Each structure stands twice: as C-alpha cells, then as structure tokens.
C-alpha cells in the first residue's frame, strides 16, 4: 500500500521546532515557464477533463438501441485533434411516451456512458423528447409524463454521477430548448417551475443544472437553495443582436446577469449551425454572416465559459446544407485569423507571457481558434516551486507551488491535489495531502474590473522517514478526480500548461501527474546539512 508522506502539524500551520527545516539552508526555488507556440501540446491543445470544446451527440433510446455509442465513437475520432474531453449527450425519450422507461431504455443509455468512460470523457447531459420545431413535431410529453420519467431517471443519474459534468434542463420543446413544444409547456411558468424543481431533486446534490437563459433561472429566485444550483447554457451565440438570441447580447439585463453570476457557475454554449448563420437560410432573412471570433472569445471570457460546441459552425455536415452554400464556416475562419495580443491586454483577457512566443523566444502568432480552445474553462500554469531538494530523515519538509489560472473559468468537479514521489523503478512510493481546493482557483477575483490574475498556492509537507530508503525520487503534482472509479485513471487527472514539465503516466496506467523536479535522500552516513 502506498505510504503517506505528511506531517499533519506542519500542514495545519503548527510547526514544532523538531520538525522545522534548518534555518541555515534556504529552500530551493524553481521557476516554471508557460507553454510556447510550436510546442506539441500547444499545437493540438492541452486536453483536460471537464473543460474545453465539446462534441454533440444524440441517442434515441428506442430507435438507436443497436448503435447507442456509434456517433460518439465517430465524432471522438474526427475531433481528436481538437483536444476534446466532453460530449453533450442528448437522450431522446419520445419513444417511451405513454409508458415507463424500460430496462432496454436504460441499457441503451448505460452503453453510451460505458463508452464515454472508455474514451476518458465526461457528459454535458440533456434529456429531450421532440426533435423538430415550428409545429412539425407530432408528439411530446405532458407535464405529468415528463415528471414521471424524471423520477425514474434518478437512479441512473446517481450511478453515473462521476461521468456527468453538468445536466442541462432540457425536457421541454424542440431539442429540449424550451420552445416549440407540442403541449405548450414553455408558456406555463408552473410547468417550468415543476420541471426545474424535479430536476434539482433527482440530480445528485454535488451536480448542477443549466438553463438556457436567466429568465428561467429567475423562476426559482424565491428558493435560494435551488437557485444557486442553476447555471447557464446559451444555444445561440451570435454576438450581434438577433431576434433568436433570447436577449443575451451585450447590454441586456440577461447578459449582465450572466456576467455577474458566472464566476461560480459552469457555463456552456454553442454557435448556431453554419449552414444557417454563414450560408443564409432562405426562411430567415436575418441569417447569413460569419460570427466574429475575437468578439466571441471576449464574451466567453466575460461570462466564464467552461465549454463550447466544436460541432457547430466548424466541420459540420448538415442534411439541409445546399451544394452551393459556403463550406468555410465561422470556426474555420477563426483558424486562419490571428488574435491580437494588444486586444487581449486592452480587454483584460487572460494569456501567459509565453503564449505568443516560440521556443527561441521570438514573437509567434496565435489564431482566434487556438485562443478559444486553450482558454475555455481552466488553464493551470504553474509559476514556481519552493522546496528542499536534498532531504534528511527525521525532519519534515514543506513544499509550496504557486499557480495562475489563465483560463476563462475556475475548475469544477471534485479533485484531490497531492504531491507524490516516484522511485527509480517508476513506482509511486508515497504521496502527501495538500491544502488546495481547485474550485477556488479563479482566474481573477470576481468583480475585479482590472481582471488582475490571482496567484494561488498549493502547500504540502514531505516526511522522508516514510520513504523506502536513500535515493533519488521524482516529485510530481497529482490532481486526480476524487471519484473512486476515476481516481486511478490518468485521463481524468489535470495537466498543467507548462513547458518542460513532463506528463508522467505510470506503467500500469493508474497515475497521471506533472513532474516538478527531483528529491534526493542521501545515505545515512552523509553529513547532515
């Protein structure tokens, strides 16, 4: 069993004299660099759990029983180069109207989630019924039918809670977007309230529920314990005002409410389909334009977006797309358009001082697409480490690492942050707890108009007496998913955005951690320092 390396009194801030490091020796200090342009991790993006670009998949629990995971596998392969670790997961329950959900229905959904775990991904989950709009859907749930199915889904949600980043309200209307429902549920605030309250009842307490616009969240203002668990997802990010944008453009109360509340919320979104916004829909005279990448990045920053669809307005292949319509959708243009660092500075938007440099220290271009990809959610850049490289048994040694979150949002989910030591045979021989809480790693203090980056610290204490013996050990930072099922899966561990710090995965595929440096335990007859 792995040994625990910790002096609890020191970690708590109470350091007995016998455990303190000798005053004559200053701690070693290592300064870290951020990722530079041209680095392999910079070219493809730093894949990390619970953040970034996401896929969009749809499973009909009745019609797709033989291919529940086929679309997920296809898209995960197609978008692998875009560092995708999330999938929006639509489960359409329309085939179960008039009856309870069956064992076969649940087996379809479970097969999808099993594949999700095989791929090392998490879900942005939505249940829906109607797959068409403007009167073309022929059937949909009554309020009673929807509430009944939600009750039946509670055990499924609990079983898969560690694979779910967030649940979207869904249920009502076309694609679960709260419009165009067969029974007009979107026009009934009591029905909307009932759906939201039921979702918050069945979704595990540590998870949260996203609604499309603040108007829906405000339905539960009178229940603050529920209100705080409601988040946002914007399914129509177009930047310039549009009649379909739900009054979410800049300058509206909805926009400002999202800016104000989003630091503590998981926020998701998507652009409209490119065939509509770029190609021009003949039924929509206000369609037909490229969505500005720079201004989209600014909005994602102001509203602390964790995730964004990489399907819409990018590589999409849509059934209604006409042969003569443009194929260069907005995100393709983003890939060809450099983002100006002076603009980012002017707007107070985050980036590392190394982000616009190459390996030789020369200026380098970054595209709008790269910038959005790299800064959605969190982006943890270690700054420096203070520790004692050469240790002696009988003393406890503090380790302190500082970091800046260069992303748009903090870290969501439950993670354990530990320092670990690896021996010369590649075995993890011990780890120590730290005082870190990832959820507190905000990019800047919420409400700070200057957006000044916050520096966060990770503190732990190593006790070399508990190690196997003298030798050289690698010191790693292990940020692992706290779920018992995912803790020993390195695909769910967090990587740091630093140049020259190796990402180490154990030979048995259990650990994944950032290597910070080395620790040496001398032979016992060496002179003590």
Description:
This protein has 15 helices and 20 strands. It is of the alpha/beta class and 529 residues long. Among the domains are: 3-39 and 378-521, Immunoglobulin-like (Sandwich); 49-235, Glycosidases (TIM Barrel). Mean pLDDT is 91; it is low at 1-24.
Alpha-beta content class: alpha/beta
Sheet with most strands: 8 strands, parallel, barrel
**Radius of gyration, in angstroms, nearest whole number:** 25 Å
**Do you know the CATH architecture of the domain at 49-235?**
Alpha-Beta Barrel
Question: Quick one: CATH class of the domain at 49-235?
Answer: Alpha Beta
Helical content, roughly?
10-25%
Shape: globular
Number of helices: 15
Uncertain stretches of 5 or more adjacent residues = 1-24
- Percent of sequence in beta strands: 15-25%
Lateral strand order in the biggest sheet? 4-5-6-7-8-9-10-11
**Termini distance?**
31 Å
CATH topology of the domain at 49-235: TIM Barrel
Number of strands: 20
Mean pLDDT: 91
By CATH's scheme, which homologous superfamily of the domain at 49-235 applies?
A: Glycosidases
């Amino acid at each position: 069993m792995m040994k625990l390396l910790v002096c609890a009194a020191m970690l708590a801030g109470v350091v007995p004299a016998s455990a303190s490091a000798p005053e004559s020796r200053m701690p070693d200090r290592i300064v870290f660099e951020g990722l530079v342009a041209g680095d392999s991790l910079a070219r493809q993006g730093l894949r990390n759990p619970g953040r970034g670009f996401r896929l969009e998949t749809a499973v009909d629990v009745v019609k797709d029983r033989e291919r529940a995971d086929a679309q997920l596998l296809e898209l995960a392969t197609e978008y692998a180069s875009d560092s995708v670790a999330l999938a929006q997961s639509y489960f359409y329950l329309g085939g179960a109207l008039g009856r309870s959900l069956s064992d076969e229905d649940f087996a379809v959904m479970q097969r999808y989630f099993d594949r999700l775990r095989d791929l090392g991904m998490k879900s942005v989950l939505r249940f829906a019924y109607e797959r068409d709009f403007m009167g073309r859907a022929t059937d949909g749930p009554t309020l009673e039918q929807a509430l009944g199915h939600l009750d039946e889904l509670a055990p499924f949600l609990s079983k898969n809670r560690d694979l779910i980043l967030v649940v979207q309200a869904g249920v009502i209307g076309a694609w679960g977007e709260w419009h165009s429902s067969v029974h007009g549920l979107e026009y009934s605030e009591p029905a909307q309230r009932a759906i939201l309250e039921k979702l918050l009842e069945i979704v595990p307490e540590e998870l949260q529920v996203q609604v499309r616009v603040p108007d829906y969240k405000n339905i539960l203002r009178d229940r603050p314990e529920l209100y705080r668990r409601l988040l946002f997802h914007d399914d129509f990010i177009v930047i310039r005002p549009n009649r379909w944008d739900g009054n979410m453009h800049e300058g509206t109360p909805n926009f400002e409410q999202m800016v104000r509340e989003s630091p503590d919320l998981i926020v998701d979104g998507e652009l409209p389909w490119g065939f509509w916004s770029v190609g021009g829909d003949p039924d929509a005279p206000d369609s037909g334009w490229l969505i500005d990448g720079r201004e989209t990045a600014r909005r994602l920053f102001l509203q602390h977006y964790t995730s964004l669809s990489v399907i819409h307005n990018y590589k999409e292949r849509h059934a209604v797309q006409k042969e003569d319509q443009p194929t260069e959708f907005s995100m393709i243009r983003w890939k060809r358009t450099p983002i100006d660092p002076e603009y980012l500075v002017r707007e107070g938007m985050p980036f590392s001082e190394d982000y616009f440099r190459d390996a030789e220290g020369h200026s380098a271009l970054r595209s709008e697409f790269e910038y959005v990809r790299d800064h959605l959610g969190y982006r943890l850049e270690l700054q420096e480490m203070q520790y004692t490289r050469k240790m002696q048994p009988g003393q406890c040694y503090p380790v302190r690492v500082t970091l800046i979150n260069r992303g748009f949002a903090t870290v969501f989910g439950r993670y354990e942050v530990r320092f670990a030591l690896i021996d010369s045979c590649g075995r993890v021989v011990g780890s120590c707890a730290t005082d870190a809480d990832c959820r507190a790693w905000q990019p800047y203090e919420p409400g700070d108009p200057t957006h000044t980056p916050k520096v966060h610290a990770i503190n732990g204490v190593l006790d070399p007496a508990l190690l196997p013996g003298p030798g050289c050990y690698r010191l790693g930072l292990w940020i692992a998913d706290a779920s018992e099922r995912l803790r020993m899966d390195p695909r769910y561990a967090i990587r740091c955005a630093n140049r020259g710090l190796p990402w180490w995965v154990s030979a048995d595929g259990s650990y994944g951690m950032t290597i910070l440096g080395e620790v040496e335990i001398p032979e016992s007859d060496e002179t003590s320092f």
